[in-house]
Amino acid sequence: MSSLDAQAPATHKGLHAFLAGLPGIDQVGAEARAAALGTRSIKKDSKLWAINTAISMVDLTTLEGADTRGKVKAMCSKALHPDPTDMTTPSVAAVCVYGDLVEAARSVVGDHIHVAAVATAFPSGRASLAVKLLDTAEAVTDGADEIDMVIDRGAFLSGNFSKVFDEIVAVKQACGSAHLKVILETGELKTLDNVRKASWLAMKAGADFIKTSTGKVTPAATLPVTLVMLEAVRDYYQETGTRIGVKAAGGIRTSKDAIKYLVMVNETVGEEWLTPDLFRFGASTLLNDLLLQRQRMLTGHYSGPDYVTID
């Protein structure tokens, strides 16, 4: 049986054997590959396409204790029409909020864009499974069609992969028809080998997306980590024929950085993943820079800081 055999038995014994059999990662090589992809030059027409594509991939996010219904509704209006002066600007892919604000978000966006809710005791994941399932079910009932769950990093790091697997399976069932994004919190996993193991564990448990980070831990998304996750979804697709999405979240603030990720996606998994259905940016401030760069490319000049709303 190949170490990348995604049809390995889903028993706990089989799961542990499968994860133990995954090949190790050459960290220096992965970092060098990520750095090299980040130096690719993007020409003018391709750059405008990349900026439009990146806008369409944003999960516009607010996850603060001070969030209000008014703040969420204003963000949702921006998500639908990021640049009210140019209606050719794409809408973002989704808005991402806490579960108790899902209804407020859905009331603005309707069925035009996705509403994602962070659930399962985000960002720590420190709660009973019963609480996590209730958290998920309530968000879906209120209108979330995407759930961003966090794994139990303590269980993962202590080698209790079965608990992490079982919780993902249970949350996936609680999602019903909603898509499940599984947050690995890679900054706490420490090694690229752990990132690969967590990626495969999440996919085998039923994740529709694997996501780098909550945005609450440093480091959040990085190019080497995202490269490892993209390689995992590529290998999983080759073994199963099922495409899993990747969401890079936290710390991506500029158009230049976003384009580096798009180049990496294209070079690692192919242009089939260059769609909001399979790649997302979790961000709160990235959209503003994308809008400013888009406006400069179309008009030839930079706008002032009041061209975009303050998030």
Largest sheet: 8 strands, parallel, barrel
SSE string, helices as H and strands as E: HHHEHEHEHEHHEHHEHEHEH
Structural class: alpha/beta
Low-confidence stretches: 1-9
Would you identify the CATH H-level superfamily?
Aldolase class I
Question: How much strand content do the residues show?
Answer: 5-15%
Tell me, rounded to a whole number, the average pLDDT.
93
Using only C-alpha atoms, the radius of gyration works out to 19 Å
Number of helices: 13
- Tell me the helix content: 40-55%
| Neighbour order of strands in the largest sheet | 1-2-3-4-5-6-7-8
Instruction: Quote the distance from N terminus to C terminus.
Output: 51 Å
CATH topology: TIM Barrel
Got a strand count?
Answer: 8
Morphology call: globular
Kindly describe this structure.
With 311 residues, this protein is of the alpha/beta class. The chain has one domain: TIM Barrel. Helices cover 48% and strands 12% of the residues. The protein is built from 13 helices and eight strands. The chain has helices at residues 12-20, 27-37, 44-56, 69-80, 102-109, 129-141, 153-157, 161-175, 186-189, 192-205, 223-240, 255-268, 286-299; strands spanning 58-61, 94-98, 114-119, 146-150, 179-183, 209-211, 245-249, 279-283. Strand 2, helix 5 and strand 3 (114-119) form a beta-alpha-beta unit. The chain is globular. The chain starts with 11 loop residues before the first helix and ends in a 12-residue tail after the last helix.
List keywords for this structure.
about 300 residues; alpha/beta; TIM Barrel; 8-stranded parallel barrel; 13 helices; 8 strands; about 50% helix; about 10% strand
